[in-house]
Design goal:
The chain is built from one helix and eleven strands; from the N terminus they run E-E-E-E-E-E-E-E-H-E-E-E. Strands 1, 2, 3, 4, 5, 6, 9 and 10 form an eight-stranded antiparallel sheet that branches. 21% of the residues are buried. By secondary structure, it is mainly beta. The chain is elongated.
Length: 183
């Protein structure tokens, strides 16, 4: 296994989960008419999976093989408040009707993921859980909404350097001699 392969748990629409290893990107192969991913399972065998059957792929810290219901430990599926990190706040509705929110990057990699891999790489709402990143195939979604664009706070514009106002004529240039009396 190369160092570019990461631990994943593939969740299928049947409810089945498959632990294994995948690279972070460009793991989808185009085969007519379906797109295929090759998952390296824990025993070292390569399993070909059709992308249409996959609900999402979770990049995880640990496999948690003893938990058969939720090994990816993806408990919070929506944000409790506005996210603090930069990104596109997305709300996805799966074909099964359940919701998932996440943050997608605000750069060209979002479009690359959609075009090349036919899916989205997002950060889940709770980054302290077992799931660090999610890959959601386009075919598993029935609806995708952009909730907000989260950016860093705008830096205040620097003030221009103070300029000296133009000199006005000084009224006191022509001083009255000190020994003259006013009327």
């Amino acid at each position: 296994m190369s160092s570019s392969h990461k631990k994943v748990i593939v969740r299928r629409f049947t409810g089945e989960t498959l632990p294994g290893y995948l690279p972070l990107s460009t793991f989808v192969r185009n085969r007519t008419p379906d797109r295929i991913i090759d998952l390296l399972d824990l025993s070292g065998h390569v399993i070909s999976l059709v992308l249409n059957d996959i609900k999402h792929i979770s990049y995880v810290r640990d496999f948690n093989l003893t938990d058969t219901v939720n090994p990816e430990r993806l408990t919070r599926r929506t944000f409790l408040a506005k996210p603090r990190t930069e990104g596109l706040w997305l709300r996805m509705t799966f074909r099964t009707g359940d919701l998932l929110e996440g943050l997608a990057p605000i750069d060209a990699s979002l479009l690359d993921d959609l075009i090349n891999d036919a899916g989205l790489q997002i950060t889940p709402p709770d980054t302290r859980s077992n799931t660090q990143r999610l890959y959601v195939p386009r075919t598993s979604l029935s609806d995708l909404q952009l909730i907000a664009v989260i950016t860093s706070p705008a830096r205040p514009k620097p003030h221009p350097p103070p300029t000296r106002p133009p000199q006005k004529e000084d009224l006191f240039d022509a001083l009255i001699p000190p020994n003259t009396r006013p009327n």
